[in-house]
């Protein structure tokens, strides 16, 4: 009886890439092991079929490519970080203080008071104040077991239009935190309660904190009006750490690059140097590329690689489980995020199996733990396939609010809009 | 420092990158021209629908430009760019697959593998099974794989990359590459068999 199967070496054996000694060991094993022989036959047959199934690619000839790329690039800032780095250091200090202030779980008594006295004040996921990222659930969702208190869905239905917080920081500006009245139309958010029927409900936006240019003597960040919140953290959450929680979502780009620019590029693997590149590109797609780059340069050790991807995992934790192509599989995630990722993966499986209800249930559960653009997009996909167009539009809109630069989502919305016409 | 300067002087990619970092956007034009065929090819092969390649190729170069800060020059620029191209295309394919699962396959579906498989493998039990899978079904199954497994299938079988090259591109050990290829092929066989 053969022992020590060689299946993990068969691809290398077929390619002729194994050392002579390794090849001999594989061959000796194949002589006595039916399992590995069968696997080798499978791999050989698959190799021919897969190579023949490779898409036939026409010769690339796109003379207009550079002009199109250039047009896009000239509309964006060039990657000359060295010019901005020193000048933005003071901005980063203030921004850091603002983030720490909003992310501080012990600041919640103000929120708690508002919750107690104004239970109808709900906060849409897309309108949370920057730096205080709600790692809870979207509107109408059943409270997660644990540490969050939500106002009732009925109360939420009375709210005002949602607003997308945005950040405008110019070089040399002083920062001030002010309250901003909602100004954009309300969105309809599908009720994410597990097991709920496909339906939507109107939700309301809160007052939003916004970083603006200071036109008057700037009050200290701690004196700024507290953002409205219908939820509170009953206990300190590991998700409420400053900086990383706000970047990569809903326009909260106060410049993570600028903040981390304060730190010297001291990581041997370049993790901090990489991290410094996040801020301007804080949508999840750019993170993917940056993540790949970071892990590439941190390949020397798992420790370096983890150090590189950890900041991104905090920005978008599912990167570590669902989407990570090149990062270390041992990237640490909190138990809550692991649970959330499992819901997403289960939702994907149900979706692929054609089970709309099952997929909706899983995605809603993931959104209940922490909403993000990707899951809203997935939810929209399910609704769309179920011909629930209005709910699909709502879900896609929520996704777009969290990732405004996502052209794919915009394209889908445009297509659905055209269908409606 | 002297070594790095000499490398830049000899490497046209490094020269272009340095100029871009200095604010000369037009220097990126040389990179686009040089790598357009490579990027266009890998993008087309990594997409479920190669007709989307033009847009995605454009996106790859834009992303690469915006990520130039993170390119440190101690690895080949082509490898760095290749990875961004693969990553971008696979992400695009994943999104498309989510909501256009019923899109018509532009390729013919009347695969006759018996004419393509070499005679020395055409009659093995595994080949008999694989010959039952249509070309479009095979592509669909590839694009339904988890990304890290899809990547090795695309690179190894579609792009004819060696295990060593795949390890360099994906930043993994070569043993991991072989392992992923084996696992991915086994998953493909299972999913295709279930669909029969």
Explain how this protein is built.
The complex is a heterodimer of chains A (421) and B (196). Mean pLDDT of chain A is 55; it is low at 76-92, 105-302 and 315-332. The relative contact order of chain A is 0.10. Chain A is extended. Chain A has helices at residues 10-15, 20-32, 34-53, 65-74, 81-103, 109-117, 153-156, 256-260, 271-275, 284-297, 302-315, 335-352, 356-369, 373-385, 389-402, 407-420, and strands at residues 175-180, 188-190, 200-202, 208-213. A two-stranded antiparallel ribbon of chain A has the order 1-4. In chain A, strands 2-3 form a two-stranded antiparallel sheet. Chain A has 4 domains: 8-48, no CATH class; 80-237, no CATH class; 263-320; 335-420, Serine Threonine Protein Phosphatase 5, Tetratricopeptide repeat. In chain A, α15 packs antiparallel against α16 (407-420). By secondary structure, chain A is mainly alpha-helical. Chain A is 47% helix and 4% strand. By secondary structure, chain B is mostly helical. Chain B folds into 2 domains: 1-103, Rna Polymerase Sigma Factor, Chain: A (Orthogonal Bundle); 106-196, Winged helix-like DNA-binding domain superfamily/Winged helix DNA-binding domain (Arc Repressor Mutant, subunit A, Orthogonal Bundle). In chain B, 69% of the residues lie in helices and 0% in strands. Chain B is elongated and about 60 Å long. Chain B starts with a helix and ends with a helix. Residues 1-6 and 102-108 of chain B have low confidence and may be disordered. The chains are: A mainly alpha (421), B mainly alpha (196).
